[in-house]
Amino acid sequence: MEVDGGRVTRADQHATDVLALMTAELYESFATRDVRLDGQALIAVKTTAIDCRPICPARTPLRKNARFNPTADAAEQAGFRACKRCHLREAPVDAGIAQLG
Ligand SMILES: [Zn+2]
Fold first, then answer.
1. pLDDT for the residue numbered 101
2. Residue 60 is among the residues annotated as catalytic for this protein
3. Are 35 and 56 a contacting pair, CB within 8 Å?
4. Which of 2, 22, 24, 38 minimizes the number of CB atoms within 10 Å of its CB?
5. What share of the chain has pLDDT > 70, as a percent?
6. How far is the CA of 16 from the centre of ligand 1 (A)?
7. Pairing between β-strand 66-69 and β-strand 42-45 as defined by DSSP bridges
């Protein structure tokens, strides 16, 4: 039992590390409005429960308030609403920054 417990703990720790790494990279990309991220991931703000595209003109949330979702559906299931500024659901993925603002 102890061995199994230890294995689970290490696996969990590994998953947490990987997620933290990914999240740090994701956050940097969102913070710089990396257009390549558009369609890849969405950033949700825990404090406002709003989900945004990477190229949203809204202010990037603080790192501790940011949460990442793979799709708008996933975000919705997690309790987030689609942002009205970046037209999360309406805009085609390659709409581009020009149409935003
Ligand atoms: Zn937005």
1. 44
2. no
3. no
4. 2
5. 73
6. 27
7. antiparallel
